[in-house]
């Protein structure tokens, strides 16, 4: 059951180091770098996690990628600074979108960080051509999202969208993630975290949840079980340093 991931991609870089003193020039810590790690982020992270979970998938994303560099204290895992470079992403071209053979994909996963790769019109086009589309978006929802099968938002994004009209439109296909409190389906059905882990780093947790949700759904066709599995994936990944790819044997 092949899956297509489409959305904004970036490069995540983590520079770890030790912080033993405060700068005499300003009230900031002085970091001595010890190591650097890096991996694909945003839509690429969703794609890598789907592959790690055994899903056959393709990806469409931007070739020139923003770089998010995080400077992190090695001992406390406290982020000291994040630097985003080249944050502008070229839009997906119409001819690229129209060239997609949607028939060969069992599901389509939209990972929209609202950096410019996908427009509202692009997303509406995708959802009109495939009946099983999952979406995680930073955009404020509108009529363009009406045909999306399942929409995943975090709690902050959900609060920014709430209105009577919003609830009437999305009461049957909305999943809201609430961190340590798990997730909620359709404004009412709660899915608590079953196996809690010590939180080390929240980076990429939403991507991992989305990947776990899709991986389990395409296997079992049960959205409730898929949410429970996605919770387990996200709970594990926040116990790791940096943007980690899921280890199926450890969930």
What does this structure look like?
The protein is of the alpha/beta class and 251 residues long. It has a single domain (3-13, 41-250), classed as UDP-N-acetylmuramoyl-L-alanine:D-glutamate ligase, CATH 3.40.1190. It has seven helices and twelve strands. The chain has helices spanning 43-52, 94-98, 120-129, 155-161, 164-170, 205-220, 223-237, and strands spanning 3-7, 9-22, 29-42, 57-60, 67-73, 79-85, 107-112, 133-137, 150-154, 174-177, 183-185, 189-191. It has an eight-stranded mixed beta sheet, with helices on both faces. A four-stranded mixed beta sheet has the order 3-2-5-6. β10 and β11 (183-185) form a beta hairpin. α1 crosses α6 (205-220). It is globular and about 60 Å long.
Write a compact overview of the structure shown:
This protein has 251 residues and is an alpha/beta fold. 28% of the residues lie in helices and 31% in strands. The protein has seven helices and twelve strands.
Write the layout of secondary structure elements.
Blueprint lengths: L2 E5 L1 E14 L6 E14 H10 L4 E4 L6 E7 L5 E7 L8 H5 L8 E6 L7 H10 L3 E5 L12 E5 H7 L2 H7 L3 E4 L5 E3 L3 E3 L13 H16 L2 H15 L14
Parallel strand pairs: 1-4, 1-7, 2-5, 7-8, 8-9, 9-10
Antiparallel strand pairs: 2-3, 5-6, 10-11, 11-12
Helix pairs in contact: 1-6, 6-7
